Amino acid sequence: MKRIDAKEIAEQLKKAKKVAIFGHVSPDTDCYGSAVGLKMGLESKGKEVFVYLPEEMPYNLVFLNNYGSFQEEKAAKDADLAVVLDCSSVSRAHSADMLKYYKNTGVRVVLIDHHLPGDLLTFADMGWQDEKISSVSEMILAILRDMQTDIRKGIATYLLAGIEGDTSSFQNQNTTQSSFEAAAYLMSKGARFGSIINNTINSKKNLGLIKLYGLVLERVVYNKKYKTAATYITLDDLKKYGLDEDASYGEMTNFLNTIDGIKMIVLITEKVDNELKVSLRTRDDKVNVQTLASALGGGGHAKASGFSLKGRIANENGKIKICCL
Question: How far apart are CA 191 and CA 288, in angstroms?
């Protein structure tokens, strides 16, 4: 992959007439924020844009539809540039088969990512990859500014939501001076920070979710030797409390990461089709959870990563077991 910067990506986007945008599987706020923010920015420049992401957002992000929306593409459309956001490996790209189709038919692939490098570095034709940047939404802002895009309220709100999400409201260790500068600029352009906070970190939680928090905390198992804590969520738990099977429980993982004295938290969430999602978090400067996640086919950041595997959570005579398939 040819390594380029924001200005060079802006030039590529200026030349393109039809752009396909890809995020990652189980998209988070930064993924949606950067993808839709870029989409609206490009459309304001007269580009035709196709977004390959689930149109149905997690419940806590539905408010963003008030500031702009998109239609999920179900089939590959004619495009002359494919942009992959917030993703380091081909297998974790949403609609990976369509991304491969574009590549195989000669469409140039541009990577914009802030995770540690994965196989997209060799798959993409060119890209900007920098794990020191807080979020891809911050990177998209730089690109749109280089394109001299008119950053209006909708674009600004999506991008600020992405920055807020990946910095955990400017609390994570990846928060930098440029994160605050980008946020201040976006607020000056009309970004609705109050709306973002009220629907994310300060959002009202239904009683079922509060009860699930209690159950997950009750199940925490502490490993004294390795100073790790692990817990789990089953599909039956979600059904019992009337919660969405496809929802992200990142807030819960971050809350568990505040337990005093631990080096790593592990949250295992049971998904449909015998899939287990494993989320890893740490605040220890000497621990890099991305190394473990990558070894098991996942990825992420040094302090927040995850992976998936085939399996189920079984209760055998009162003992909880993780059964891999």
Answer: 33
Interacting residues of 186 by C-beta distance below 8 A, sequence separation 6+: 141, 151, 156, 157, 159, 160, 163
Query: Do residues 190 and 156 touch, judged by C-beta distance below 8 A?
Result: yes
* First and final C-alpha spacing in the chain: 35
**Cα 43 from Cα 162, distance rounded (Å):** 19
The Cα–Cα gap between 231 and 266 comes to 6
**Domains in the chain and their CATH numbers?**
2-199 (3.90.1640.10), 207-324 (3.10.310.30)
Q: How far apart are alpha carbons 172 and 319 in whole angstroms? A: 35
Yes or no: say if 101 and 109 are a contact pair by the CB < 8 Å rule: no
What does each C-alpha distance from 147 to 13, 88, 162, 233 come to in angstroms? 8, 25, 20, 44
In the block, residue with structure tokens 């996640």: 293
Interatomic CA distance for residues 180 and 252, integer angstroms: 25
Q: How far apart are CA 163 and CA 137, in angstroms?
A: 6
Give 70's contacts (C-beta < 8 A, 6+ positions apart).
35, 36, 39, 51, 53, 55
d(CA 38, CA 143): 9
Residue (of 303, 299, 6) closest to 138 by Cα position: 6
Rounded to whole angstroms, the Cα distance separating 68 from 6 reads 24
Structure tokens at 16: 């393109």
pLDDT in tens, the chain (325 residues): 899 999 999 999 999 999 999 999 889 999 999 999 999 999 999 999 999 999 888 878 899 999 999 999 999 899 999 999 999 889 889 999 999 999 999 999 999 999 888 899 999 999 999 989 999 999 999 999 999 999 999 999 999 999 999 998 898 878 999 999 999 999 999 999 999 998 887 666 778 888 999 999 999 999 999 999 999 999 999 999 988 776 667 778 888 888 888 999 999 999 888 889 999 999 888 999 988 988 888 877 888 888 889 999 988 777 888 887 7
Place of tokens 């806590």: 60
